[in-house]
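Quick start: what a row looks like.
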Amino acid sequence: MTLTVTRNATEGLGSVSSGNALELRGVTKMFGALAAIEDITLSVRPGERRAVLGSNGAGKTTLFNCVTGDFLPTSGTIRLFGEDVTTFPAYERIRRGLRRTYQISLLFGGLTVTDNVYLACRGVSRGRFSLIRPRKGDPLLTRTAELIEAVNMTAATDTPVSELSYGQQRQLEIALALAGAPRFILFDEPAAGLSPTERSELISILTGLPSHIGFIIIEHDMDVALRVAESVTMMHNGKIFKEGTPEEIENDPEVQELYLGDGHG
């Protein structure tokens, strides 16, 4: 199936900028005297797929939290499709096409796969506060089925989320991130805990996303990250350490010493 995603996610908030999808300038986040991230300057083009890599404590998740609005930066600016969103709450960034997955699954375990995806679609639609139950032919139900098929979960449509494997739950989270009209997605360690077969499935899903949707992936599995990304940013001690193509990063001696270890070929 070829997934189609509506491009206008902003509900009248402005057209897509011809500049960068995401632009950070001097972003710093302090927790007391500790700088979790410091002076981060980063630009990502529309449709670009980038991996942000680094050891535990490098500042990767804090960076995501600042981009999504879970944390406000101590200093610096964040622009999303040309608009300064530095002080915007998370829901305003969502309205502008930003989506995110988390390290820990945030799903309704007692509801089915269909119910979870439908609620995600409903939550970013104009009629999200309506109390009218959906009827057969509801466009959101159609969209729900498309998203479930896009992440290869049609066979589990009526399965309660609590009965899904961990890998299936991670796939479902991607479907939720695709609800509405995303323009940029942040994936926070989507391959964590997956089997080799599930990791292959994840790679297929991520590489099959519509070309206009850019994303950043945080991932400890280098094989997954380097296969789905076209550019890589390495972080170390809260700062950007190196940037380059997957091939350049994989073959860099300093990167191998700090992050890949002796077992990586």
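That is the whole record. The radius of gyration is 19 Å. The first strand starts at residue 22 and ends at 31.
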